[in-house]
Input
Amino acid sequence: EFWAWKRCGRCAMTTIDRDTLERCAEPLKTLGTFRKRQHATMNFGMHLIPVKGLPEGGIELKEGDRFEVTEVDSKRRKEWKKLFG
Output
């Protein structure tokens, strides 16, 4: 069980190639086409905090894993519908 703490923005460090140190527009260019928010920030995901303790080895959420939303903030839902229909 997790508590959704806040949205996670994506920083410019992802635009730097670690091997050559060259900068490019990606992935922010693509993310900006559908995730741009107020003040030019881009929503990348959510910070989740476990409600109960984690197993010693931690956990890993992967693409395709299923989860269930058990509670929704009505203000956030209205904001989401306004932004994304």
